[in-house]
Fold this protein.
Amino acid sequence: MALNFMDLLGSMVQTSINTSPTSSSRMSTAGSGIQDILGSLMGAGQSVKNTVGGDNLAAAGIGALLGALTGKSQSTTANSLGGGMMGLLGMMAYKALKNTMGGTSGAAAQAQAVPQAYTQPTPQQQSSDAEIIITAMIDAAKADGQVDADEFSKITGTLQKNGLGQEGMNYVIKKLQGPMETAKIVAAVKGRPELAAQVYSASLMAIEVDTEAERKYLTKLGKAMGLSAEVMQSLENMTGGQSYAC
């Protein structure tokens, strides 16, 4: 049976909430702007269904994600958290890219791709995108060059506690112990600025950016994916972080 990347993403979100107050806070900060983002979409005369894939978004579990972040959720599944994370990242990407329409030519060119980008994804595309998001989150954890024994044990222990199966655990361990996969990420987002923006946001929310190596990594990643400084700045603002784009 193939690994379910939506479930795995949900388990990673639970782990971030339970093990890193900073990353949990950043996700919560991003989540708190959902109503504003939806308001912006509707105000622009776009329907959520036609713009972001409303059927999928409605079932994506954004409420479950916010409930987990605020501690108000009584029961959540890994799949609902994974879907909620993808829905949140998608809305953030849409807002950041649309906000650049009046900006520089590079930013405007990225934004022009947005209306076509948010058609209803197939299950295969959704799974593929979730895998790239997971890869980006794990790479971000390794951005300062190390995942020490305590950090490794905390991550894997919490994943196991959250019910992640052995196949998923083996996948995460292999990724944590393996090399950075920046080239794979960049290749995956080529021609898809909305996915690049989601990758950048997920990377921001996955870690506490408190080292020069992490700051340089984020800037290098964003530029390699073709994101403009304006788009990166917008995403950083939405996640409650400082600017790393230059």
